[in-house]
Specification:
With 310 residues, the protein is of the alpha+beta class. It has a single domain, classed as Clavaminate synthase-like (Double-stranded beta-helix). β10 and β11 form a beta hairpin. The structure holds fe (ii) ion. The site of fe (ii) ion has 3 residues, from loops. This is TauD/TfdA-like domain-containing protein.
Length: 310
């Protein structure tokens, strides 16, 4: 399957994110091109706001996201209010059955601003990791939720001008090829306790869940889905602990991981870029932010139970 022929570092490949669709209306031609070049981060132009409401354009984006699990859209116009992204999400909901995002709060709505801040936090009592300049190790978003979002998107409003905040992606299907069958089987058993980080506790009586780290997706045994954030997972059996250690060792082994990782620098994701990601088929990480004015906007949607295919 195309999404398992995963990209490596664009720099190592000598490739840059490229536009497959200079003329977005020519979706047949663009799709054919995309199918022949599965190792390249797909990059699609959106020259006019109105296109984000047109079903054929929405369908094209949704199909590429389903096929590859990752897609970049380049806006050809300023959109500080993320209207375009809103229109795409309404389109995914209307034509492709994606569930709409859940509002973070009455003031923030669907969107969460990711920028370093020392004064005002978007959570009432705690500072979320996204509100710091810290690096994030490999994880999927909302792994502590019974229904983690299937997708998230990041819109770049201000790139890091000092070379920090590099976003990296690691395909779960490819990661699965370097895990032993025994390790994968153990990670698929519901023998892990996953704690909710304090800043995301909604119900004080529900602070953790018990479940698996991996599951099989609708594409069959090679379609592996994942939920993972190392600092909140506790194994509940000896086998589960061994498998978790195997996974951690591989994720820390740069000589293995570097061949599979797609790294997106600020140059790869300039202002006006939107990255759409399948949150169960790609792990992501971030280096330290260097520019205090770096500003991304995030939205997550289509929250469904993790074990929805078994
Ligand atoms: Fe994240």
């Amino acid at each position: 399957m195309a999404r398992q022929i995963l990209p490596t570092s664009l720099g190592q490949l000598g490739l840059r994110p490229r536009s497959l669709c200079q003329r977005p209306l020519d979706t047949k031609r663009a799709f054919a091109t995309a199918s022949r070049r599965p190792g390249v981060l797909l990059s699609v132009e959106l020259p006019e706001m109105s296109l984000s409401e047109q079903p054929h354009y929405v369908n094209y984006i949704a199909e590429q996201l389903k096929e590859y699990g990752i897609l970049k859209v380049n806006l050809g116009f300023p959109d500080r209010n993320s209207r375009c992204l809103q229109q795409l999400l309404f389109g995914f909901h209307k034509h492709h059955g994606h569930r709409l995002p859940i509002a973070h709060s009455a003031s923030c709505g669907w969107f969460w601003d990711i920028r370093p801040t020392a004064v005002t936090f978007q959570s009432p009592s705690y500072q979320a990791r996204s509100e710091t300049m810290e690096q994030f190790p490999w994880h999927t978003d909302c792994s502590y939720e019974e229904q983690p979002p299937r997708y998230f998107a990041l819109q770049v409003l201000q790139p890091d001008r000092r070379g920090g905040g590099t976003f990296s992606l690691l395909g779960v299907g490819r990661l699965g090829t370097v895990l032993s069958p025994m390790t994968k089987a153990a990670l698929m058993r519901p023998e892990y306790q996953i704690e909710t980080p304090p800043e995301f506790i909604k119900d004080p009586t529900r602070r953790s869940l018990v479940g698996s780290v991996l599951e099989i997706g609708e594409g069959g045994p090679s379609d592996i889905l994942m939920r993972y954030r190392e600092d909140i997972v506790t194994p509940l059996s000896e086998e589960a602990a061994g498998a978790l250690n195997d996974l951690r060792d591989i994720l820390r082994n740069e000589s293995i991981i570097s061949k599979m990782v797609l790294r997106l620098s600020s140059a790869d994701m300039p202002e006006g870029s939107i990255l759409l990601v399948d949150n169960r088929r790609w792990l992501h990480s971030r280096t330290h932010v260097q520019d205090p004015m770096r500003h991304l906007r995030r939205v997550r949607w289509d929250a469904v139970p993790f074990r929805s295919f078994t």
